[in-house]
Amino acid sequence: MAQTTFAERLANLLKQQGISQKELAERVGVTEATMSRYMHSERIPKSEIIANIATALHTTSDYLLGTEENGDIETDYPRIVRLIARNSASMTKEQKSAIIKALLEDD
Fold it and tell me: Is the pLDDT assigned to residue 19 strictly greater than 90?
């Protein structure tokens, strides 16, 4: 894994989701200083921290680590399944219904 890949993806996700570095650190259970080190490629988090970051940002560890890209359904299907499985407990009934409806609609 290239260190910059993790740091860049982390920074991009924070920006896209409007989450501060401090807020992510609190969600993950690390200090803001530690999160800063991750974001500046001064330190690489342990696997359990990467998993917690991925969960907090509604993504996968594979994406954060640069081993998977956003692409077409053929390559994203496993990622989509993991995202739904990882986040289903925090989804509202409406969000779950919207996913089911989208899957069952005919184009």
Answer: yes
* pLDDT higher at 83 or 9: 9
- Of 83, 59, 76, nearest to 10 by C-alpha is 59
How far apart are the C-alpha atoms of 91 and 48, rounded to whole Å? 22
What's the pLDDT at 71?
Answer: 44
* C-alpha to C-alpha distances, 87 to 22, 36, 38, 73, 84, nearest whole angstrom: 22, 25, 23, 19, 5
Q: What are the start-end ranges of the E strands in 1-107?
A: none
In angstroms, rounded to a whole number, what is the distance separating the alpha carbons of residues 107 and 104?
9
